[in-house]
Amino acid sequence: MTEVLNDAQNTCPVHTTDAERSPDTRFSEDGYESHASGVKGAHEYEPLGPDSLTWQIWGTWTGMFQGLWAGSIQNMHPKLGAAVWDHSDFFGERWQRLMRSLYPISGVVFDSVIPGAKTGLEVRDYHRTVKGTMEDGSRYHALDPDVFYWAHATFWYGNVRLCERFGPFLTEDQKRQLFEESKAWYAQYEVSMRPVPETYEDFLEYWDYMCRNVLRDHVSVRTVLDITQLPPPPFLSFIPKSVWDNYLVPQNQKLFMWLTTGFYDEPIREILGLEWTDADERRFRLLGKGINFVMHKALPKRLLRHPRPRDAWDRVNGKVEKDAPIVHTPKRNLPPLDERDNPMHYCPVTAARRATYPTVLTSD
Fold first, then answer.
1. Region (Disordered) spans which residues (predicted)?
2. How far apart are CA 322 and CA 320, in angstroms?
């Protein structure tokens, strides 16, 4: 597991105050910072392709082990947590929202081989209207660079943390490579690159600072961590409700809370009042070795990939035409009817190609 730096600072090694920003900083019509001078612009980065390490190890279903970690640690950012609480119906349709969100999120990386795809810009634009007022009267906007970059940091660094725990195990040079590739990934949103640390070591300082000084407990965090009201996922819908509610729900809550605690940095455990013993750590490492063997050595890689990344690899390998339509989420994952015109939602009401896991594609 990555060592947590023990270097408390009074200022974030990445973030700047309004007074410190360059006079050349540009802002969008919505009021968020869209460009900062003195940093490499988003347009200077090339999209990631199949030769990248990110393509090699990201985009598999093993990320589901880390689902609660990702959702909770994102919401621990005060402004991001407020935005989710004020604007998202994540808590009302959790499986559907999670399953459909995986398509554009992974598409930012893997749609680079599809001619004309602008998935990064689409994801950015879902957030344009997500803004409001904090309890202390300050304003938030989802595209505030310091907020938006935190969400991205949890995506790319979550990949590192997952590999550290459950494989495929990485060298330090590979972690640095993933960090450098994360810049090109982030550039696909065409937002201000100001918050992006310069080096992997700078990023670790940034992450440690955020965990120790910025992240907070919040009702949206606790709601993510509470899965006692979560129905069975679609592939387990055959389980009787009484069995799910009375037996599986309590066991799932205990298991996934333990998994999530294992992924947390120690400062986060302290904030949330979670205990992690040496015995927990030993069991977690043992579990990680088992998952690494099953997921990364025993099972075919193609079977483990989410439909959008799998389709991208199929294009590269000649199994799918390069100009074939993008693979979209199944209709069962679409937002409720009264939310389908909401610009915050990815909502492909019609699609030439839809995924049905594990290998079947359909069309409308």
1. 1-35
2. 6
